[in-house]
Amino acid sequence: MENNTRLIETLIRGRDFTKQLQSLLQRKDNLDGSVSVSVLAEDLLMEILGSFSGGISMLSSTVSGEIYGFPASPVGNLVDKSPEEAHSGKKPVSVVKERRGCYKRRRTIDSYEKISVTMEDGFAWRKYGQKEIHNSKFPRCYFRCTHKHGHGCKALEQVQKMEDGSNNYHITYLGHHTCPNLSHHGVVLDFENHPNVSDSPSTITNIHIDPSIKQEVVDSKDQSIDISDNVSSANDVNSSSPISWNEVFMGDLGSLIMRVDNEDSCTTSTSSHGYLNDFLNNDDLLSESLLFLDQSHG
DNA sequence: ACAATTTGACCGGA
DNA sequence: TCCGGTCAAATTGT
Q: Could you tell me which SMART domains the record lists for this protein (predicted)?
């Protein structure tokens, strides 16, 4: 219960920071020089991301501590290897046996997907695996946050090249960054025109999200996603589905901001800013999102 | 020397 | 048993 209070406080903090960022970005519209503004915005973004990540990880740790849990010392004893074992490519049986049950497969919660022209997203990722996927032309690459050890950050990323002939990547994010220094490695807000969104003078370009991005929450197999449909409809103002609150929480805030900005740049008739404003101004929606989080983790 | 990546084996859910 | 996610030794890069 005390945790819930802390969680709410944390999320409210995040909302307040987002309000500040919003007014900052609005102020930016009236300014031509945006260097100091973008620095401020970057700091605010860090605060926001920290608040949301903190709240989410609080919830994760209290409700389902094992979701992302890895055992502290999963590895078998390699010191006892005989010289023969050490030189053969094969691992000794004892080592293999001690690895049994050494990790738990994560559930497919706290994930969201997006399509992007680049794998670069401002976070520092380290590749830890690659797999050929059945019936897929391209392998899937597995990344974890570089700060997994330093800060215990449990964020994971899966990247697979799309088979539709484009050079887009299908990126799945699992978990949230809890490392504190995320945006200093490339998530920089600048407000120069992006070639693909030249209509908007206030486009955040250095977060790698393309205007065609459409993100979805995926928490069950039944919610299969036709990526190509989503990409095509993302630029269709009439079919563009409203962002939902679970998307707000499941996605990273950079994507959220890009999406809002993107729809703005597409001069959609329905003000997508409304969704952000709703979140910023409506305490009921905050409670609603908390309820959603509670359910999704239960 | 240390960090990052590659790659084949292991693991568990379906 | 299959398939995809993860581990960790070996290899490569800085």
A: WRKY
Whole-number Å distance, CA A98 to C1' C9? 16
Interatomic CA–C1' length for residue A133 and nucleotide B3, angstroms:
28
Which of helix, strand or coil describes residue A126? strand
CA torsion angle for A109, A110, A115, A118 (degrees, to 10)? -130
**Domains of chain A by residue range:** 2-70+83-297
**Span CA (A74) to C1' (C7), Å:** 9
CA neighbours within 13 Å on the CB side: how many for A168?
21
Residue whose CA lies closest to nucleotide B4 C1': A126
- Rounded Cα distance between A277 and A273, Å, is 6
Average pLDDT across chain A, whole number: 52
Q: Which residue is nearest to the C1' sugar atom of C8, using CA?
A: A75
Q: Which of A18-27, A29-38, A121-130, A145-154 has the lowest mean pLDDT?
A: A29-38
For the record, the structure tokens of A184 come out as: 């200093």
